[in-house]
Every structure is written in structure tokens, then in C-alpha cells.
Design goal:
- Helix content is about 35%, strand content about 35%.
- It has about 90 residues and is α+β, with helices and mostly antiparallel strands.
- A five-stranded mixed β-sheet has the order 1-5-4-3-2.
- The chain contains three helices and five strands.
Length: about 90
């Protein structure tokens, strides 16, 4: 599986505490095995993020992503629910 990181994602990721960065790695491993594993709470987005999907990293941290092609994903944004959707 290939993850492409947007500059928005990279900036947001660098701001996260190390503990949350580690959790991102764990969740992306789950994603690689099963994109729709229930722990990820994967769902479609609407409005500004129409065409994107979201997965949960913690109860408040989300990754907004888009599938580019088979096994190729753009990780577009990462942040808290309020940072991303307000």
C-alpha cells in the first residue's frame, strides 16, 4: 500500500505529540490490513471534503484521505474534529 502525504498532512502530523504520532502508525497498519476495520470508523465526508473519507486515530484525532487508485491513498489532513470540520 502506498501513502502519499500532502503538505497539510505533514504539517499537522509534526504538531502532534509523539504518543499520537505512534498511534497514527498503529492505525495505518490496521488500515493496510482492512481499510474498513471497525476500529477506524471509516466514513464518507460531504461538503468541503466531498470525495474524501475519514478515519479515527483517537476519539478526537482524524485523518482525511482520498483513494487515488488501487492501493494508493492521499493522506490529505490530520487534526482534531474541530480543527478539520469547523
Amino acid at each position: 500500500m502506498n501513502f502519499e502525504l500532502s503538505s497539510h498532512f505533514e504539517k499537522g502530523y509534526k504538531k502532534l505529540p509523539k504518543k499520537i504520532q505512534n498511534k497514527v502508525g498503529e492505525r495505518l497498519e490496521v488500515f493496510e490490513n482492512d481499510e474498513f476495520d471497525s476500529i477506524l470508523k471509516n466514513h464518507k465526508l460531504h461538503g468541503e471534503y466531498d470525495g474524501f473519507r475519514s478515519i479515527n486515530i483517537t476519539s478526537d484525532i482524524r485523518i482525511v484521505y482520498r483513494k487515488i487508485s488501487n492501493n494508493h491513498y492521499l493522506l490529505h489532513q490530520i487534526g482534531t474534529h474541530s480543527e478539520l470540520y469547523s
